[in-house]
Amino acid sequence: MPLPSGQKSKLSEADVIRLVKLLVRHGADANDKFVLGCIYGADGFGVFKELLSMNADMSEIALQIAVDMRSFAHENGATLKFGEAVILKAAQFGKSVKFREFYREKMRYFEEFLKFKSLKELKKGRLRFFIETNLALDNAEAVKFLLENGLCDLADECEFLRKRRKFTAGRRF
Asked: Where are the domains of the chain?
């Protein structure tokens, strides 16, 4: 059961990890999609790592990160839209120190995911949403990250990126 808004648990992250292990050992489903949303939303990076090591399905992480990036951009006055030319304000926000710090904090989850899994294990639509979001934010670092982690091993996704980059012509990645 979640805690009331603004209230923190008195359990340490190590205590939570022990609790998760105990629950899984006694039949809890570590692959429940609700679990990823809870630990990611509560900044439970240690728990996330532990669940990955237990082979839990964390394949929604790209979607979670993209949704957070879009929300964060919107909260800061930058609206992202698909299928349109890049909105200058969104691209400028994607270059800001504030966004860069936010991005790095969130991407540690994706980086950890890729220590255990590959991009192939992400659903196509989720990965494309992540790509679209980062192109709208003019986030070359995210595109480079995907390319370095095997995006072009997925022919359809590589072609999708190529076409989208052509659509956002003039920007360098």
From this structure: 11-58, 59-170
- pLDDT value for 47: 82
Average pLDDT of every residue of the chain: 82
Return the closest-CA partner of residue 70 out of 38, 94, 105, 42.
94
Question: In this structure, are residues 59 and 30 in contact, taking their beta carbons and an 8 Å threshold?
Answer: no
> Around Cβ 155, how many Cβ atoms within 10 Å?
8
Candidates 102, 119, 101; CA nearest to 110 is 119
Q: What is the per-residue pLDDT for 153?
A: 93
Element holding 63 (H helix, E strand): helix 61-75
Closest CA to 66 of 131, 118, 19: 131
CA distance 65 to 81: 17
pTM of the entire predicted model: 0.79
Count how many residues are written for the chain: 173
